[in-house]
User: Fold this.
Amino acid sequence: MISRTPVPPRIPPFTVLRFARYLNFLCNLPGERTEISSAEMARVIGIKATQLRQDFFTLGGFGRQGRKYDTKVLQERLREVLYLQRHQDMVLVGAGNLGQALANYQDFERFNLFLRGIFDSDPRLVGAVLRGIEVRAMDQLAPFVREHAVSVGIICVPHQVAQAVCDALVEAGIKGIWNFSPENVVVPDGVVVQNENLSVGIMNLSHQLNSQRQDG
Assistant:
């Protein structure tokens, strides 16, 4: 079991990423699974069981080898630490292919994230409907964000305009930027950004794949 200790004030970024991986794994378990061992979970995720038990110890658990975890309680505690029990509204800028794929992603809601608005500067896309949400023109972005108290902005635009879009989101009051453009956007103090550079990811994959071939 996981005790009800307060959320640690400062968690290292790599530990937060592991917490997210743990929660994602637990969410995809069959509904009838009520317990899981640290050894099994670590093996599937691809980390050492000692690391997993150490991470869970910081959540208030005992982290001892041979002790199984209640999957529902662990999910709840991870959601608390990742602040996923808070309702958070999002807007998406860029209704091209990647933006459309993200708009149609159906797992946002289970993490208490809700897409409320989609915006684009292309008049051919304005007025289209993606998952029940009408694409709006960019001049409606700021009033929409303020009216609906949106906290998260998703960027799916070409790198040439990514920083300008980021600046517009920040100016509108957005406090969290999830950036899928190839440009690493810069934000002021008080705003957080998560850059998801797909090019960097595929280059890293290429290196790992081909270095393994050379080792073989």
Notes: Helices lie at 13-27, 38-45, 49-58, 71-81, 97-103, 141-148, 159-172, 198-215. The longest strand covers residues 113-120. The chain has eight helices and nine strands.
